[in-house]
Amino acid sequence: MDSSFRILRSIYFHIILLLALFPTFPGCSNHSPISNKNTYEIKINDKTSHAEVAFTQKDRTIGLMFRDTLGKNHGMLFIYPQEQNLSFWMKNTKISLSIAFINSEEIITQIDSMTPYSLMSHTSKEKVKYALEMEQGWFSKNGIKVGNKVDLSPEIRSLKTE
Asked: What pTM, to 2 d.p., does this model score?
């Protein structure tokens, strides 16, 4: 009887432990690389990247915060309802990033490097509709400069922004 009580107690303990840990599993996805959710191909010159698209206010607010890594040639494209001066900072962002500000004609108007956890604002000098964050140095490594045309797919252009 004593050994069956210990077995039941052990099973009970493991069930409680699993139930206690289960709510944390979905939260782990915040620390993973770019997900396939809302991910699209973006072409600049002859280089193809894959970007998760942030087109809602909530997605734009969270951005790449809390992520540990980015996949090779992966980033995040921020889309706004209309052109405006955009400002980004790196609070809670662990990854060194470069950001390209892109106007409604899909032309890169500015590229900045951003430091992890920095509260310094990176503000577009011109009004833009898009911002593309990639691993720091990605644009220069791929010969992408201010004035280059970004080829956004019709699917990206048709997303309804908030």
From this structure: 0.77
